[in-house]
Amino acid sequence: MNHALTAAAAGFGSGLSLIVAIGAQNAFVLRQGVRRDAVLAVVGICALSDAVLIALGVGGVGALVVAWPGAVRAVGIVGGAFLLCYGALAARRVVRPGTGLRAEGEAAGSRRRAVLTCLAMTWLNPHVYLDTVFLLGSLAADRGALRWTFGLGAACASLCWFAALGFGARLLGRFLARPGAWRLLDALVAVTMLAMGALLLAGS
Questions:
Q1: How far from chain centre, in Å, is Cα 96?
Q2: What is the pTM of this model?
Q3: How far apart are CA 204 and CA 186, in angstroms?
Q4: Are 120 and 82 in contact (CB under 8 A)?
Q5: How far apart are CA 80 and CA 128, in angstroms?
Q6: Which of 35, 154, 155, 197 has CB atoms 3.0–4.6 Å from 15's, for a disulfide?
Q7: pLDDT by residue, tens only, the chain of 204 residues
């Protein structure tokens, strides 16, 4: 029992250390949380997607992906182009604040658009595969018979993080009531998306 708890805790810590960073996916979840727009759906997609990818990594699928480098390169190109476009839209909101968004969901976008964007952010980003399928998969393999317990801990870390990020972001509502605050948030999103997109294209 102690060994299982140790493996689960190790998985939780490893998973948390990989996802707690300002990346394209986290920036999007944060923005949706502040807007209170489709937060449950976005958090669910991110957590469930991570759980599926972690399971694939624990199951040893990473070795199969390595055999098809062309597929990873194609995902990088498409994902990089997508992030550049999304970053450009965020930058446009910074330059033209009149097109920006208000807190409290006053100008919430469609749930379908949020879901599709979240899916693209998750599944078109090769870094997500690197963190979940390859890195966590490799760490889980070292746990032997307890590798699935390790994977469960990592999946729980993902769920806790995205839930805290998405639902906790509404606490920023008072701060974002100021007009310049949304521009600052959009500037952060724009820089993150544009940098990630450029790196993906450069590495493809």
A1: 27
A2: 0.73
A3: 27
A4: yes
A5: 13
A6: 154
A7: 677 888 888 889 888 877 876 677 888 888 888 888 889 999 999 999 999 999 988 887 765 555 666 666 776 677 778 778 878 887 887 787 654 444 444 444 578 888 998 998 888 877 777 778 877 887 887 788 888 999 999 999 999 999 998 998 877 766 665 667 667 777 877 887 788 778 777 876
Q: Which residue has the tokens 């070795």?
A: 63
**Nearest partner of 196 among 121, 95, 133, judged by Cα:** 121
| DSSP output for the chain | -HHHHHHHHHHHHHHHHHH-S--HHHHHHHHHHHHTSSHHHHHHHHHHHHHHHHHHHHTTTHHHHHT-HHHHHHHHHHHHHHHHHHHHHHHHHHH-GGG---TTTTT---HHHHHHHHHHHHHT-HHHHIIIIIIIHHHHHTTGGGHHHHHHHHHHHHHHHHHHHHHHGGGGTTGGGSHHHHHHHHHHHHHHHHHHHHHHHHH-
Distance from C-alpha of 29 to C-alpha of 98, rounded to nearest angstrom: 22
Q: In this structure, are residues 83 and 196 in contact, taking their beta carbons and an 8 Å threshold? A: yes
Amino acid at residue number 103: A
